[in-house]
Amino acid sequence: MTGRLVAEPSPVTIDPAAKQGTWDGWGTSLCWWAAVFGDRTDLADAMFTTKTVQVENEQLPGLGLNIVRYNAGASAWRKIGEREMKKSRIIQRHRQMEGFWLDDRSSDPASDSWDWSVDAKQRNMLKLAKERGVTHFELFSNSPMWWMTRNDNPSGGPKPSDDNLSPQQERNFAIYLAAVAREAKDDWGISFTSVSPFNEPVSDWWFADCKQEGCHVSPPQQARVLPLLREQLDKQGLKSLPISASEETYYDHAISTWQSFDAKTRSLIGQVNVHGYQEAKGDRAKLYRLVHQEGGKRLWNSEYGDGDPSGLQMARNLHRDLATLKPTSWSYWQPIDGGGWGLISGDLPRGRLRRVNPKWHVLAHYTRNIPPGSTILTTGEESIVASFQEKRGRLVIVSLNDGDTERERQIDLSRFKGSRLTATGWVTEPQGSSRYQALENVATQGKQVTLRQPKKSVETVVVDGLSG
Predict the structure, then answer these.
(1) Strand residue runs (E) in 374-447
(2) Where does the Endo-beta-1,6-galactanase-like domain start and stop, copy by copy (predicted)?
(3) Strand extents, DSSP E, 14-51
(4) What φ, ψ does residue 259 adopt, rounded to 5°?
(5) Could you read off the pLDDT of 193-235 as tens digits, one per residue?
(6) Of 296, 98, 69, the residue nearest 197 (C-alpha)
(7) Which of 54, 177, 341, 442 is the most exposed place for a label (fewest CB within 10 A)?
(8) Could you give the CA distance from residue 401 to residue 263 in angstroms, rounded to a whole number?
């Protein structure tokens, strides 16, 4: 390392008693990338195992994701009388996710109004994920089937502020999601662990010529759909399958939607999902308080994405989430996407991979080293994420230095028990050459660990031999 070291004025003390919650895991959505690459076993290995995997010409550390989010599509090309699906002028084919309920003649999933053979690649990646040990499967919807919308367009209404789910189709929408969950359990070998009916529903960018499928659903309409969905899930014998909602884009949207629901409506929601696109803004702490006042509900950041290929912006917002929102899982939207949005940059319309962004290796620090079942510890320092696996005696410290100078930081572990400590670590420098590179040595003295961290980097240290 070169450059000036800036010493922190005081050490960061990590306390095993400062328990923040048990970690459920790390995840990703399968649409849209799996609709293109759903037959690629190398990509399944890279995302859902921790093996070293060759993708194209590059060796990648497997991310070990354990959560996948399967999208129930909204698009179909069968006409209903003179009606046919209206298509946004700018939507790309791989963003038109194929739906199973093709027309409104019959609600019986065994009838020819339904086609369970569509969406083969996304379903295949779902199977590959399960074979590699994924434990959580979430069914989610970007839009109801096209013919359930007011204007036959699954990208949104004429005005982005208008609800586009037809009120007359609210029950059919619930029937659709419940039928997909039942079919998955019976024929795909997939038992969904939650079902999410809305996607960024109060945001005002779902309109007829949008780039993807989407649907504005106001809080009053959400409150009408939720009991219908619960009723249909129960009818399908899925009484233990929780509903997650409302997948709002921003933390502040999630707060206003949650506060609009009465107690009975909130009781229908077993898991609160929010997206992280408000980045540095939004009242994360208030959302955390509101959800935990209800008791027994999970809080997940179920979708985050940004266009920075370095991964530093992603890491910055991930640290903000873990420090203040305190979710028990975190998912990245599109692992393969154009430019800096993907962990791997890809040309999805042509089915090609371009390059691996440093963002892949940055995310690997978290997903490979903080497994499900870990206890997240509150550190009091946003740039330091810590997790503890008490049975293994393992503490994981992930440090973000997004500054312009190298940094030295003292980590005080005096509140842990244990005397023979060993430490290993890795570093990624997106603006340099290090990509999840093993550290030659980690300085420890007694129960103090010294982190010497390059500028603009993410560094992980794993300390073994501790007890709480």
Answers:
(1) 375-377, 384-389, 394-401, 406-412, 422-428, 437-438, 443-445
(2) 12-250
(3) 19-22, 25-29
(4) -70, -20
(5) 999 999 999 999 999 999 999 999 999 999 999 999 999 999 9
(6) 69
(7) 54
(8) 43
CB 410 within 8 A of CB 12: yes
| Segment 7-14 mean pLDDT | 73
Residue 319: its H or E element: helix 312-320
Indicate the pairing of strand 443-445 with strand 448-453.
antiparallel
Query: Sign of dihedral through CA atoms 359, 365, 366, 369?
Result: positive
- Asked whether the whole model's pTM tops 0.85, one would answer yes
Alpha carbon 396 to its chain centroid, in Å, reads: 21
Residue located via tokens 């969406």? 119
Distance of alpha carbon 241 from alpha carbon 387, whole angstroms: 29
In the block, tokens 């899982």 appear at: 329
Q: Which domains does the chain have, with CATH numbers?
A: 5-18+379-464 (2.60.40.1180), 24-372 (3.20.20.80)
Compute CA 41 distance to the chain's CA centroid, rounded to the nearest angstrom: 21
The amino acid at residue 300 is W
Catalytic residues: 200, 303
pLDDT score of 433: 95
CA distances from 404 to 35, 41, 93, 398 (A): 40, 39, 42, 18
3-state secondary structure 72-87: CCCECCCCECCECCCC
